[in-house]
Amino acid sequence: MSISRRTARSVRILGVASASAALALGVAGNALACNIGDFSAAATCDGNGKGIITVTDIDASAKEATVTVFLESNGADAHQVGTAQKVTGSKNGATVSFAEDWAPKAEYRVHVSVPNIVDKDISPNLVAQAEACATKSESPSPSESPKPSDTPSASDTPSDSASPSDSESSAAPATPGDNQPSAAAGESNLAETGANSNTPMIAGIAAAFVIVGGGAVFFGMRRRGASKAG
């Protein structure tokens, strides 16, 4: 049975359309399929100044992947960091973290495994920052640096009992008359030195008593002599 030209043309058109659809589906399938390009790694610090290695998975097909991290030394694995962890991809990004006190510029190999799809390392290897987390957390910020205190402490200030102002204020102020001798003191001093204003009168009375006494003695001796002569 012969095929008409119209039928043959229709078959060709249908074949081209089918091939185009298959190619489009293949490209879309490859775009949605999980691959090593969906994974990335970074060496960062947590809020407590500790180092961590974070792996991010942006696989939109949401395949479960196993992530393993190794510290590299001279092109070989020095040791495995922690234990392998699983992460399920998300177009918004799913992350998994490994606690690691990484040294500055340390190199790590991050391996990703998805059964029957991916079994590769993230390329290139992860290289840590040039400054470690401990250095950042231990260095004090300018606002936290201690400043010398300008005010003296309580132990440096003199006590109230030793304050000269308090001892001076507790003593009563001296009045001008406190240093001057009283009248009684002046009189006693004058009496002791014979400089009192009553001294001439006392001396006169004493002289009078001496004269009277002498006269009495003279007259007494005279009368006694007269009586003996008679």
Describe the overall structure.
This protein has 230 residues and is of the alpha+beta class. The chain has helices at residues 5-32, 133-138, 164-170, 183-193, 199-229, and strands spanning 39-45, 51-57, 64-73, 76-80, 85-88, 94-99, 107-114, 118-121, 126-127. The strands form 2 sheets. Strands 3, 4, 5, 7, 8 and 9 form a 6-stranded antiparallel beta sheet that branches. Strand 3 and strand 4 (76-80) form a beta hairpin. Mean pLDDT is 74; it is low at 22-31, 161-165, 167-171 and 188-195.
Question: Which labels suit this protein?
Answer:
230 residues; alpha+beta; six-stranded antiparallel β-sheet; Immunoglobulin-like; 23% strand
Largest sheet: 6 strands, antiparallel
Choose one word for the global shape: rod-shaped
Class inferred from helices and paired strands: alpha+beta
Helix content: 25-40%
Q: Assign the CATH topology of the domain at 36-135.
A: Immunoglobulin-like
CATH architecture level-2 label of the domain at 36-135 = Sandwich
Order of helices and strands: HEEEEEEEEEHHHH
Q: What is the overall pLDDT average?
A: 74
Summarize the topology.
Elements: H1 5-32, E1 39-45, E2 51-57, E3 64-73, E4 76-80, E5 85-88, E6 94-99, E7 107-114, E8 118-121, E9 126-127, H2 133-138, H3 164-170, H4 183-193, H5 199-229
Describe, in short, the structure shown.
Helix content is 36%, strand content 23%. It contains five helices and nine strands, in the order H-E-E-E-E-E-E-E-E-E-H-H-H-H.
